[in-house]
């Protein structure tokens, strides 16, 4: 943790400012210590370079496992592709020049694939996550001067109001108990005139069978699901057989990325999270309107997106 993060932190309980006690430093990073609220006295530990505003990873243990197992798979800097950079462009519509000199909140940072892009594009990024994915994110990018990684819950964010110029949440809000409430929880921390971009699951025809499978898979032990998800590695070749492959994919949908570890990761990511809500774009549009956002736009529109994925961005007034 970098001391300068105190400029934007506030107690998630009462909004008070923090006193910082440092127990151990390594280079310019605070390794261990404590943040105590000057107002209500509540204390939060800094452990292994990360401030911790939650005691457990609650319902996101599958993500704690996933992002530490597959910490490198989707990181452009580790897989020598620009896949995450392209995905960020499509899903948010933001370009490198939109990031420069801005303070940006990554809501549900995972292993840090998009925070990596934003920080390379010149933004100062604060990545929060409820899960122990934060360990992976810190390992991947946490020591950069313009990156801050925090373990915190979307519903109790530890920031001062109207702090961030931009915020984004890619593939996260639908994995909380209440997608709309999660969306609303972020808004107070955006500056007026700031923008919020989200990617939320929509409905797709292939969900019919995966929703049935999920009734079982979400109850199985995580390590077993890790092994079972590897079925995506050989199934790829079957799914690519004309006609028969499409039927097989419909009955047992698995990720179809050319990279074998990427499809293993994405299949695990589909079948294990406790919550996986799906929405429609008019529904998400309404959430933006209710929060009085303007300039609301849809991104990543192709033949599939209006059904399967909702990428939307708006400006706070
Ligand atoms: C599918 S992952 C996406 C991670 C990253 N945005 C990406 O695209 O690589 C969803 C993430 O949301 C996080 N998450 C779910 N509920 C959360 C909450 N209440 N507060 C913070 N993070 C949460 C999970 O821990 C997980 O890392």
Please characterize this protein's 3D structure:
By secondary structure, this protein is of the alpha/beta class. It has 3 domains: 52 residues, no CATH class; 187 residues, Rossmann fold, CATH 3.40.50.150; 65 residues, no CATH class. The chain is built from 14 helices and 11 strands. The strands form 2 sheets. A 7-stranded mixed sheet has the order 7-6-5-8-9-11-10, sandwiched between helices. A 4-stranded antiparallel sheet has the order 1-2-3-4. Helix 7 links the parallel strand 8 and strand 9. It is globular. The mean pLDDT is 95. The structure holds S-adenosylmethionine. The site of S-adenosylmethionine has 20 residues, from helix 1 and strand 6.
List keywords for this structure.
seven-stranded mixed β-sheet; globular; Rossmann fold; 317 residues; 23% strand; binds S-adenosylmethionine; four-stranded antiparallel β-sheet; 14 helices; alpha/beta
Helix and strand succession?
EEEEHHHHEHEHEEHEHHHHHHEHE
CA gyration radius, whole angstroms: 20 Å
- The CATH homologous superfamily of the largest domain is named Vaccinia Virus protein VP39
Structural class by helix and strand composition: alpha/beta
The CATH topology label of the largest domain is Rossmann fold
Q: What is the CATH first-level class name of the largest domain?
A: Alpha Beta
The proportion of strand residues reads 15-25%
State the separation between the terminal residues, measured CA to CA.
Answer: 32 Å
Helix tally?
14
Poorly predicted ranges (pLDDT <50, ≥5 residues)?
none
The hetero compounds bound to this protein are: S-adenosylmethionine
Q: Roughly what is the average pLDDT, rounded to an integer?
A: 95
Biggest sheet architecture = 7 strands, mixed
Instruction: Report strand order across the widest sheet.
Output: 7-6-5-8-9-11-10
Number of structurally distinct domains:
3
Helix content: 25-40%
CATH architecture of the largest domain: 3-Layer(aba) Sandwich
Q: Shape, please?
A: globular
Number of strands: 11
């Amino acid at each position: 943790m970098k001391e300068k993060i105190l400029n934007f932190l506030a107690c998630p309980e009462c909004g008070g400012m923090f006193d910082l006690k440092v127990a151990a430093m390594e280079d310019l990073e605070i390794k261990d210590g404590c943040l105590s609220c000057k107002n209500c006295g509540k204390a939060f530990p800094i452990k292994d370079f990360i401030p911790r505003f939650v005691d457990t990873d609650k319902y996101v243990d599958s993500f704690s496992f996933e992002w530490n197992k597959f910490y490198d798979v989707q990181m452009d800097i580790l897989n020598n592709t620009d896949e995450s950079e392209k995905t960020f462009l499509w899903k948010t519509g933001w370009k490198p020049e939109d990031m420069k000199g801005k303070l940006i909140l990554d809501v549900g940072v995972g292993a840090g694939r998009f925070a990596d892009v934003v920080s390379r594009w010149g933004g100062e990024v604060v990545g929060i996550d409820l899960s122990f994915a934060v360990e992976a994110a810190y390992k991947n990018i946490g020591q950069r001067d313009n990156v801050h990684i925090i373990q915190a819950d979307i519903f109790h964010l530890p920031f001062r109001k109207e702090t961030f110029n931009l915020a984004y949440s890619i593939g996260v809000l639908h994995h909380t108990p209440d997608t709309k409430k999660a969306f609303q929880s972020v808004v107070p921390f955006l500056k007026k005139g700031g923008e919020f971009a989200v990617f939320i699951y929509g409905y797709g025809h292939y969900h019919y069978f995966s929703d049935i499978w999920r009734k079982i898979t979400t109850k199985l032990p995580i390590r077993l699901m890790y092994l079972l998800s590897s079925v995506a590695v050989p199934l790829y070749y079957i799914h690519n057989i004309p006609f028969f492959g499409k039927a097989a994919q419909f009955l047992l949908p698995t990720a179809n990325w050319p990279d074998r570890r990427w499809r293993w990761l994405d299949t695990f990511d589909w079948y294990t999270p406790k919550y996986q809500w799906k929405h429609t774009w008019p529904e998400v549009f309404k959430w933006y309107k209710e929060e009085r956002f303007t300039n609301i736009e849809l991104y990543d529109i192709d033949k599939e997106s209006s059904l399967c994925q909702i990428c939307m961005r708006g400006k706070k007034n």
